[in-house]
Amino acid sequence: MKKIEFSPKQVNGFVSDNDIKSLYPEAKKAFQSLKNGTSKGNDFLGWLRLPSEITDEFLSDIENTAKELSKRVNVIVVIGIGGSYLGARAVIEALSDSFSSYDNEGMKIIYAGHNIGEDYYHEMMNYLNNKEFGICVISKSGTTTEPAIAFRLLKEMLEQKVGKAEAGKRIVAITDEKKGALRTLALQEGYKTYVIPDNIGGRFSVLTPVGLLPIALAGFNIKKFIAGAAFMQNDCMNNEENIALEYASTRSALYAKGYIIELLANFNPKLHFITEWWKQLYGESEGKENKGIFPAGVDFTTDLHSMGQYIQQGPRMLMETVISVDKQKYEVKIPTDSANLDQLNFLAGKRIDEVNKMAELGTRIAHVDGGVPNMEIVLPELNEETIGQLIYFFELACGISGSMLGVNPFDQPGVEDYKNNMFALLNKPGYEEKSRKIKERVDNVK
Questions:
Q1: How many whole angstroms separate alpha carbon 170 and alpha carbon 136?
Q2: What is the 3-state secondary structure (H, E, C) of 377-434?
Q3: Among 5, 58, 26, which Cα is nearest to 252's?
């Protein structure tokens, strides 16, 4: 299996090799605390060795569930928010045909429960009205507001459309093993279920059924996906100075020099949701105690025509990590035009990817020259194995760098603040005192 690569060469001049290597002892200590289970948040380390622990029998069961659902439906609604949907969507979008959603054949994967948009749900339900659809609902508790609203709407719609018995065969619940509203409902209705492990948080859950079932439903090879993750796990666990540790140390060295925002950039539109998943992974893991690198994302070359000016000449607080894909799946060459009015004949006969690679190289040089330290992650190509490697690489590096910050990388206490305010404003039972206090502030906000 070809390995993904990491290069920090373009941070020279911003931080020295000694700056980075001086952090290796701290990074190794953090890595060791993950391996021996003594890190902060050590009750959420189930992801660390997960790839090598998943059995073929378990993966085959997920594949069989996907096949059975595919016989009954042609659209699957994946209901979840945050880590309960972003990882799956990131992998699916990276591997899918960019225009497959316009075809009439094959399984369609759409997403709900990640917003509270009324028009979005009206339009989704209108779309589903004449479709044979099923639901993959992902929630540990079953009471998280956004997915709970979506599931209530779509469960009722499905039962009215095909009847309660058939609906029960079209719904799969991924939830807590023993407790919670969704587990109780699944037992009552006889849904097929999979477990979200207690020792794996949502943003680290893409290698569990949370990600694996949607990916399998989309038609991709989850055994190869897990094999890629296991390959990276083995490489990192058996190499003290692995690329995850190197990435964590490099970004930490830059952070110490005042580079407090990291841009994850790509030159392949298929990687947009990899960035969205990465933003949650690092934002929720590191942004605590007034610490942490702010994770942001850009899609190039598109965003060079919008954000490029700021990146080039704005405040010098940015670092940039570029994901580069070495080999494309298809080949498209630029034709010759006899009139040459667009003055592009100098590119005639060249592959689109050759032009894109030069745009990538030119951008990296320009940004470094403009004061933006640059790191690079190279994927040999886009497939299940390389994406599996990338997912595990980012997860491990996140655990290391978060531990180096001295925070707990595996909790997210700040996320509850907006929920408590929302519940109070909606008069949820049990929030009466909070409701009284917060409503006194509403006029000031409006």
A1: 8
A2: EEEEECCHHHHHHHHHHHHHHHHHHHHHHCCCCCCCHHHHHHHHHHHHHCCCCCCHHH
A3: 26
Determine how β-strand 5-10 pairs with β-strand 374-381.
antiparallel
13 Ramachandran zone, left/alpha/beta (phi>0; psi -120 to 50): left
Please tell me the predicted confidence (pLDDT) of residue 106: 73
192, two tokens: 């097929």
pLDDT, residue 412, reads 85
Measured at the alpha carbon of residue 351, what is the angle toward residues 346 and 357, in degrees to the nearest 5? Answer: 95
Could you give the CA distance from residue 109 to residue 101 in angstroms, rounded to a whole number? 9
For 50, the token pair is: 């997960």
Cis omega (within 30 of 0) for bond into 301: yes
Q: Which domains does the chain possess? A: 5-40+226-405 (3.40.50.10490), 50-223 (3.40.50.10490)
Q: If you search the block for the tokens 């039972």, which residue do you land on?
A: 429
Number of Cβ within a 10 Å radius of residue 299? 18
CA distance 353 to 330: 9
- 308-365 pLDDT, tens digit per residue, is 999 999 999 999 999 999 999 999 999 999 999 999 999 999 999 999 999 999 999 9
The helix (H) or strand (E) run that includes residue 33 is helix 24-35
The pair of structure tokens assigned to 241 is: 């100075």
Cβ(358)–Cβ(301) under 8 Å? Answer: no
Q: Give the C-alpha distances (Å, rounded to integers) separating 383 from 182, 281, 327.
A: 33, 21, 11
Burial of 110 (0-12, 13-18, 19+ CB in 10 A): middle
List b or e across 153-165, with b for residues whose CB sees 16 or more CB atoms inside 10 angstroms: bbbebbbebbeee
List active site positions: 284, 305, 419
Strands of the sheet with 318-327, listed across from one edge: 5-10, 374-381, 318-327, 261-266, 294-299
Any idea which residue has 């409503």 for tokens?
439
**C-alpha to C-alpha distance for 388 and 421, rounded to whole angstroms:** 38
Query: Residue 222 in contact with residue 212, Cβ under 8 Å?
Result: yes
What whole-number percentage of the chain has pLDDT above 90? 88
Alpha helices (H) along 129-242? 145-162, 164-170, 181-189, 209-217, 222-237
Name residues whose C-beta falls within 8 Å of residue 165's C-beta, 6 or more positions apart in sequence.
none
